[in-house]
Design goal:
Layout lengths: L6 H6 L7 E4 L3 E5 L7 E7 L12 H18 L6 E4 L15 E5 L11
Antiparallel strand pairs: 1-2, 2-3, 3-5, 4-5
Bound molecules: adenosine monophosphate and zinc ion (ZN).
The site of zinc ion has 6 residues, from helix 1.
Length: about 120
Amino acid sequence: MIDDSCIFCSLANGKIPTNVVYEDGMVCAFEDANPMMPVHVLIVPKDHYSSLNDEIPEDVLGHALATVKKIAEIKGITESGYRVMVNTGDDACQTVHHLHIHVLGGAPMTEGSPRA
Ligand code: AMP
Ligand code: ZN
């Protein structure tokens, strides 16, 4: 289900143009508008789920997580390494309430940072 008032629903479903890195029937991955690392891609289900706390079918969750590896390959960071984050709720500073997986890399990170 798509929420017309949700920016990530619009981006993931092509209603607002963005820099798409990868797309299939279930997910869209696009460049973060305010990158915290040389590589900063967001993997977003095409259907609306507000966070990991939502009722998310396991095939969607599994597919979104499996897409991480594809993004790493596309971005050439498989060997150098990368960080994967899913901010959930207020204490984690989730600002966009549509589930998204941050894929961060392209340079060495210190332990515990960045806090995307
Ligand atoms: P979070 O704090 O985990 O909710 O992260 C939201 C992320 O979405 C941030 O890294 C923002 O830079 C990013 N973001 C917000 N609006 C857009 C947009 N229109 N296009 C791409 N990325 C966005
Ligand atoms: Zn949405």
